[in-house]
Amino acid sequence: MSRSPSVRYARPLLDLAEEAGEVEEVGNQLEQVSRIFEEDLALRSFLQRPDQDQEGQLLLVSRILDALEIQGLARRFLLFLLRKERFPLLPEICHRYGELADERLKRVRVTLSVPSPLQKDELESVRQALGEKIGKTVDLKQEEDPSLLGGWVAEIGSSELWDASITGELAGIKRKLMRNEGSA
C-alpha cells in the first residue's frame, strides 16, 4: 500500500484506536461524518474553500459532531484534520482506515448478491462457509439482484468476484460455444 496522505493519517489513527480498544467505533464515526461530507455539497464547498474563516469552519463542524454525538478520539482527529486543512481527504482516509482495520483484524467484507433474500440461518451458513474458504472473518452484506436466475455472486473485498449464479454459468457456456464455433 502506498504512503499516500490518506494512509499517513489512517495508520496512526488506527494505532491509537487499537490502543484504546475503539477500532470499530472510530471507523463507524468516521464513516458517518464522511458520508455527510460527501453528500452535502454546500458543507463540502464551505469546508474546502481556503478563504473561509477557520473558526467558523471549526464551529460548524463542532456542531455537526455534537449532533452526531461524535466524541473522543474520532472527534479530536476530525478537528485536527480541519485545522490542518486536510478535511477534504476524509473520504479517502476513511476508506484507508477501513482497509487497514480489516487487514489487522483479519476480516474481509463480502457483498453477496442473491435473486431473493436469504433467511438468517442460510446467510449465517454462507458467511461461515466463505470464512472457512477465505481464511478470514467475513463481514457479510446481502443485496437482492432479481436479474440473477439462481445461485449467488460474492464480491470479496474490492478486488475479487466469485460467481456461482445460474446467469454466470449460462454466460460461461455461451463463451465456450462461441470459442468452439470459431474453431470449427
- Sheet with most strands: 4 strands, mixed
Distance between the termini: 47 Å
Radius of gyration: 21 Å
Q: Tell the overall outline.
A: elongated
Helix content: 55-70%
**Architecture of the largest domain, according to CATH?**
Orthogonal Bundle
When the domains are counted, the total is 2
Q: Give the rounded overall mean pLDDT.
A: 90
Helix/strand order: HHHHHHEHEEEH
CATH topology of the largest domain: Peroxidase, domain 1
Strand-pairing-aware structural class: alpha+beta
List low-pLDDT spans.
none
User: Class of the largest domain in CATH?
Assistant: Mainly Alpha
Spatially, the strands of the biggest sheet line up as 2-1-3-4
The proportion of residues in beta strands is 15-25%
Task: Say how many strands there are.
Answer: 4
Number of contiguous helices? 8
State the gist of this model.
Helix content is 62%, strand content 15%. It is α+β, with helices and mostly antiparallel strands and 184 residues long. It folds into two domains: 5-103, Peroxidase, domain 1 (Orthogonal Bundle); 106-183, Glutaredoxin.
